[in-house]
Amino acid sequence: MFDQVALKLNVDPLIMSALREDITSEDVSANSVMRMPQRGEADLICKEAGIVCGLQVFERVFALLDDGSELELHVKDGDAVKAGQVMAKLRGDIRAILCGERTALNYLQRMSGIATCTRSMAELLAETDIKLLDTRKTTPNNRIFEKYAVRVGGGSNHRLNLSDGVMLKDNHIGAAGSVKRAVEMAKEYAPFVRKIEVEVENMDMVKEAVAAGADIIMLDNMTHEEMQEAAAYIGGRAEIEVSGNVTAENIAALSDLGVDYISSGALTHSSPILDISLKNLHAI
């Protein structure tokens, strides 16, 4: 859940931007059928099984349009829901409900889909000490929502943004000239509280990253045998992350590597939405 500071500073402006995208001047359809204020009620119904996430954001959409809106919740973020389940009742000005419906559902469906996908992948690592991480492969201007959904689903967040930590990828290494030089330059420049992570693609780079004193070594798109060799060589001298085309279909096969983290861009860039509807709107 977002605290009040995050809600007002970070969440509300994004929601308002989404609403402005959908309502440039007025909702012609809503105003056609509802000329005067009228309080109404609608059911929030899940149409397929999954993990619900984003109820606070869903509620906030209507609060910004109508400060008299109310959401009576029957579930909370992180709960497993099933098809046909009524998750909440929304009450407020019917015009605000009609205006905000699609924007609110877009957030809720997307966040619930990510939480559902994350839960399914996290469960495959449940018997290990490996943390499942997301990446920065998120929808522009929706990262705060998508990374929250990963946490609700049982995953953990990697960097929130480029200011959040040092990650030296292939192009950083290319720009610096070598793994060793890239790590040296990062240690000279970055605040000492920042860990330095290096992305490597072969054993030569692994050895260079260890010698340079990298805090975290990411094994990117290496074979299973190469990752086993790399983990044995690193031997606790750095934390180890595995990355590269990790999906629900192959993540379990990585659990025997003895690494600290497995990251998957698929959590945010490929999760299908959870089908949710707002139904049975009527005046009260």
What is the residue-mean pLDDT, rounded to a whole number? 97
CATH-derived architecture of the largest domain: Alpha-Beta Barrel
The CATH homologous superfamily of the largest domain is named: Aldolase class I
Poorly predicted sequence stretches spanning 5 or more consecutive residues: none
Structural class estimated from helices and strands: alpha/beta
- CATH domain fold name of the largest domain: TIM Barrel
Tell me the distance between the termini: 30 Å
Would you report the number of β strands? 12
Structure write-up:
This protein is an alpha/beta fold and 284 residues long. The protein folds into 2 domains: 4-118 and 272-283, Quinolinate phosphoribosyl transferase, N-terminal domain (Aldehyde Oxidoreductase, domain 3, Alpha-Beta Complex); 122-269, TIM Barrel, CATH 3.20.20.70. Helix content is 42%, strand content 20%. It contains 10 helices and 12 strands. The protein has helices spanning 4-22, 28-33, 55-65, 94-123, 143-152, 170-176, 179-189, 203-212, 224-234, 266-269; strands at residues 39-46, 50-51, 70-73, 80-81, 86-93, 131-133, 166-168, 196-200, 216-220, 239-243, 261-263, 276-283. The strands form 3 sheets. It has a 6-stranded parallel sheet. Strand 8 (196-200), helix 8 (203-212) and strand 9 (216-220) form a beta-alpha-beta unit. The mean pLDDT is 97.
